């Protein structure tokens, strides 16, 4: 009897272990991209994004787009004698997983730059690890102002980490831009503000609220939701009874979708407005048909409309990736390309070879990188922020995000 | 406008769903003193079972035909997994120290989550669940969603069926006997192995009904949906008195209403506006749990089925 139960336990454990290792290898073994010609140096560009879980739609778009940049660089032999490869790690949108991934990238000598992460909260846990090792990190999606301008960015801007750059705009611009659109163009004066208390969501909600009040609008209620929750009926009832004309949500689509749906179901037929974190097709899937009229701001001009982006969209289709490039695809491509440009600078300056302190040199070179990318001109200011400060408002029409207004935020 | 009736209804609906899942925890605990932490995942597989039936049905099938089939699909999948888990994961450990099956349950919970994640088509992010057409119903100033009608009907019916089964049928009495003292029950001719399997199966069936309600209510299901809901349902079971099937439902409703009212009203208390948002609702729910357990360690209704600790 003992014997039999032992066998059963061992079998169960073995089966469990197999399942887990199978998942593990799927995540980290995804090194993508063709290795190109065998001679010369190989440079690895790390990619860190949520490849599984709620936010994987955006994460996989980032991974594929970075992979595309690497493929193009290899095809064109953009840097003579250097073959690029990507290595994608899954952070599950968790700061702890992000930090482990950062340590892994740092320990691999061939890694000269990292694209990612998606979440500002994950970036906070990675920045120091990268900076201590002079490994450059270019995020396509982080919009938290504190990442580049320090915790006291509203009073005194101090860049905390020299190795951190981003191609996306910050919430310091995105929130106010949304406030101006809602107040001036959509003519809504009473807002209910909801956020998910994460770095990204609460930052966005705060900058929105500040500008909205400054314009003369009224905040009729605030609420913070739990990112693990799915039942927002109590919040929805509060929104309905507050008499708000519009809801502003600082957070991401896994909660924004059900939230929008439940607010409308509760009887408040008012639009939900959010940031780039809700601008994903999954939002419509979750929010249902009632989502028509919901708004989202996103960084940059619509990728599909930029002439520079047409090539990217065509290449992406041709490469046959299973997943969409999603909200940050263009930025991920530009982030990866910025690393490639920086590597090229370093290699060119060193007579066609990688120097021994390549990481530090690449980080230094990043500051002066400038090229015409998918999303427009890509270069960085003294804080590591993108100099491109364009934003676009999108609205839900017939189950798709349609650009309604593009512009640049000016103070 | 007075929003109290609406908030009470919101809480009642949420609580009924907790209750349906809590029954599984409480029945299994009442009979084998095992906290089946994989129960939340059994709930989740039930939802995917229902979705599979829906995807298999020809497009455009009316919900009136589809819904019973989906419930059957959910129940079949959830019961099969629960019975399999009992046979292969828990039964070999029945005489082992209490911690061994507990760890097994946690492991099983992870394994089920990852299995759905890895092998169910497109389950890596949320999947949409079919909805019942038709607008919401208005009673006074209370709005009830069409999807919630199912929950309103299913929770009391399930409860009544369960009460009848446990109190009136032969198997149900065998169940009570096993809960009181398995060894004596065995001597009296009760097939305790069978009773334990039935307890697992019944719990899974109620979780499956709850899972269909979840899908209809929120319009989406995902591989992690069982974790938080399972935790809440377990809390509900403890709140009501673990081992007591009525306690599970009462505990669920109390928990749901407490969470909803905390979200709605705590912020209105002067000086408490920082602690009133929905993200604090769980904190208040657990404060309530601690208070109840301080003054009534046996839960609101106490253990009726099993009276030994």
UniProtKB/TrEMBL annotation, chain A:
Keyword Signal carried by entry: yes
Lineage of producing organism: Bacteria, Bacillati, Actinomycetota, Actinomycetes, Kitasatosporales
Protein source organism: Streptomyces tricolor
Residue span(s) of domain Leucine-binding protein: 42-399
Keywords of this entry: Signal
Signal peptide residues on this chain, from the entry's feature table: 1-22
Pfam families: Peripla_BP_6
Protein name: Branched-chain amino acid ABC transporter substrate-binding protein
InterPro entries to which the protein is assigned, alphabetical: Leu-bd, Peripla_BP_I
Top-level taxon of origin: Bacteria
Record family assignment: Belongs to the leucine-binding protein family.
Automatic annotation (TrEMBL), chain B:
Chief location category: membrane
Membrane topology: Multi-pass membrane protein
Residues that span the membrane, as ranges: 12-32, 39-57, 63-85, 97-120, 149-167, 195-215, 221-239, 246-267, 279-295
Keywords: Amino-acid transport, Cell inner membrane, Cell membrane, Membrane, Transmembrane, Transmembrane helix, Transport
UniProt KW Signal keyword: no
InterPro entries per record: ABC_transp_permease, BCAA_transport_permease
Subcellular location per the Swiss-Prot or TrEMBL entry: Cell membrane
Entry similarity comment: Belongs to the binding-protein-dependent transport system permease family. LivHM subfamily.
Stated name of the protein: Branched-chain amino acid ABC transporter permease
Naturally occurring in which organism (per UniProt): Streptomyces bangladeshensis
């Amino acid at each position: 009897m003992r014997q039999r139960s032992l066998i059963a336990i061992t079998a169960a454990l073995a089966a469990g272990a197999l399942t887990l290792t199978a998942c593990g290898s799927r995540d980290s073994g995804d090194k993508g991209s063709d290795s190109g010609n065998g001679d010369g140096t190989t440079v690895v560009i790390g990619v860190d994004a949520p490849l599984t879980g709620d936010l994987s739609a955006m994460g996989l778009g980032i991974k594929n787009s970075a992979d595309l940049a690497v493929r193009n660089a290899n095809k064109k032999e953009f840097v003579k004698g250097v073959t690029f490869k990507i290595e994608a790690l899954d952070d599950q949108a968790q700061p702890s997983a992000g930090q482990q991934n950062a340590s892994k990238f740092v320990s691999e000598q061939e890694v000269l730059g990292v694209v990612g992460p998606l979440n500002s909260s994950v970036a906070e846990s990675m920045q120091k690890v990268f900076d201590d090792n002079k490994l450059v990190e270019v995020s396509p999606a982080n919009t938290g102002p504190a990442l580049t301008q320090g915790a006291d960015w509203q009073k005194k801007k101090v860049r905390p980490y020299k190795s951190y750059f981003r191609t996306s705009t910050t919430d310091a611009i995105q929130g106010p831009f949304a406030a101006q659109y809602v107040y001036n163009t959509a003519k809504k004066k009473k807002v209910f503000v909801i956020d998910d208390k994460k770095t990204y969501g609460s930052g966005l909600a705060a900058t929105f609220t500040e500008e909205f009040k400054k314009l003369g609008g009224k905040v009729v209620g605030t609420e913070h939701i739990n990112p693990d929750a799915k039942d927002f009926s109590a919040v929805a009832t509060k929104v309905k009874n507050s008499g708000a004309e519009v809801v502003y949500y600082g957070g991401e689509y896994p909660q924004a979708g059900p939230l929008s749906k439940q607010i409308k179901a509760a009887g408040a037929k008012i639009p939900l407005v959010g940031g780039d974190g809700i601008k994903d097709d999954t939002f419509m899937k979750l929010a249902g048909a009632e989502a028509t009229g919901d708004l989202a701001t996103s960084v940059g001009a619509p990728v599909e409309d930029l002439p520079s982006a047409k090539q990217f969209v065509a290449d992406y289709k041709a490469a046959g990736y299973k997943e969409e490039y999603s909200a940050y695809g263009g930025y991920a491509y530009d982030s990866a390309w910025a690393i490639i440009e920086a590597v090229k600078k370093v290699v060119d300056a060193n007579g066609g070879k990688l120097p021994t302190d390549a990481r530090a040199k690449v980080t230094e070179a990043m500051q002066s990188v400038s090229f015409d990318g998918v999303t427009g001109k890509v270069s960085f200011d003294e804080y590591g922020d993108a100099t491109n400060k364009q934003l676009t408002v999108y609205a839900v029409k017939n189950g798709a995000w349609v650009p309604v207004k593009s512009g640049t935020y000016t103070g | 406008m007075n929003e109290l009736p609406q908030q009470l209804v919101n809480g009642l609906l949420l609580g009924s769903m907790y209750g349906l899942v809590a029954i599984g925890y409480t029945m299994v605990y009442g009979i084998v003193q095992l906290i089946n932490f994989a129960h939340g995942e059994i709930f989740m597989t039930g939802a995917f079972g229902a979705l599979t039936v829906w995807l298999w049905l020809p497009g455009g099938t009316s919900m009136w035909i589809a819904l019973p089939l989906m419930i059957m699909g959910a129940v079949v999948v959830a019961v099969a997994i629960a019975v399999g888990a009992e046979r292969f994961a828990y039964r070999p450990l029945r005489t082992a120290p209490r911690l061994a099956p507990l760890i097994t349950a946690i492991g099983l919970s992870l394994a089920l989550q990852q299995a759905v994640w890895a092998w169910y088509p497109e389950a890596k992010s949320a999947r949409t669940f079919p909805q019942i057409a038709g607008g919401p119903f208005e009673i006074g100033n209370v709005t009830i969603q069409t999807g919630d009608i199912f929950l309103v009907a299913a929770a009391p019916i399930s409860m009544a069926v369960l009460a009848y089964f446990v109190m009136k049928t032969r198997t149900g009495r065998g169940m009570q006997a096993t809960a009181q003292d398995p060894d004596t029950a065995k001597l009296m001719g009760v097939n305790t192995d069978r009773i334990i399997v039935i307890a697992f199966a019944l719990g899974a069936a109620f979780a499956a009904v709850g899972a269909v309600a979840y899908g209809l209510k929120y319009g989406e299901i995902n591989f992690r949906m069982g974790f938080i809901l399972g935790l809440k349902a377990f809390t509900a079971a403890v709140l009501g008195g673990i081992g007591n099937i009525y306690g599970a439902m009462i505990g669920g409703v109390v928990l749901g209403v407490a969470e909803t009212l905390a979200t709605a009203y705590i912020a209105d208390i002067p000086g408490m506006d920082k602690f009133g948002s929905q993200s604090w609702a769980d904190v208040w729910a657990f404060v309530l749990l601690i208070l109840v357990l301080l003054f009534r360690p046996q839960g609101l209704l106490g253990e009726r089925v099993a009276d030994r600790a």
